[in-house]
Design goal:
Layout lengths: L1 E5 L7 E5 L6 E6 L9 H12 L2 E7 L12 H17 L6 E8 H13 L4 E8 L4 H5 L3 E6 L7 H8 L4 E6 L12 H20 L2
Length: 205
């Protein structure tokens, strides 16, 4: 069953909620800018969550944010609305919650997590932004990044490497979409490996 849960403040912020009465856990997916839930990395994230018998909340806020908003107060405002949507979904009692986020969504997810106060929450940060580093380093989490990402550059990768909390998967030559330049088959292989990481992530208790 699927439904739309709208923000009370912004028409551009809403959640697509996929639920099954048998599900005991919830996956929350925070998209990037111009990288919505129909794009490969996030399409298969939802599929992996559903195949592991989880309800899924796909948040949407792309029309409310822009690249210039990274690290800006509007992130906090959008995160508050995402939190309100999440609270609606949490009226169903879940034993665990999984945050999977991409790009600017990693910053939104980290912001929401700080206000969520739910003890059994797990995190996967996918191609983060620099403003998400503070959230990544202070939580036990999984992060996936490419070494040729023009947004999350090597200096930020080195910062999270120093954190003992972070399990880091590096994609050699991967860009901000974790694709390899002029290498279609290689990009598909990367996607397969990332999906395998999703499956492992969603199997964590």
């Amino acid at each position: 069953m699927s439904s739309i849960i709208k923000s009370q403040k912004f028409d551009e912020v809403y959640g697509e909620y996929y639920s099954d009465e048998k599900a005991k856990s919830l996956a929350v997916i925070f998209p990037g800018l111009k990288y919505g839930h129909d794009k490969p990395l996030l399409h298969y994230a939802r599929k992996a969550a559903q195949e592991s018998e989880k309800d899924v909340l796909c948040l949407n806020y792309e029309k409310k944010l822009d690249w210039d908003d990274i690290g800006k107060p509007i992130i906090d405002t959008v995160a508050d609305e995402c939190l309100n949507i999440l609270k609606e979904v949490m009226k169903k009692e879940y034993k665990s919650v999984y945050f999977l986020s991409k790009s600017i969504g990693t910053e939104v997810a980290g912001n929401v997590a700080g206000k969520f106060n739910y003890s059994n929450t797990k995190f996967l940060y996918l191609t983060p932004t620099q403003s998400a580093v503070k959230y990544i380093c202070k939580s036990k989490c999984f992060a996936i990044a490419g070494t040729n990402d023009n947004i999350f550059k090597n200096e930020y990768i080195e910062k999270i490497k120093k954190s003992g909390n972070v399990k880091l998967m590096l994609v050699e030559g991967g860009n901000h979409s974790l694709e390899l330049s002029n290498n279609l088959i290689g990009s598909i292989d990367v996607l397969k490996n990332v999906v395998k990481a999703y499956i492992d992530f969603f199997e964590e208790d």
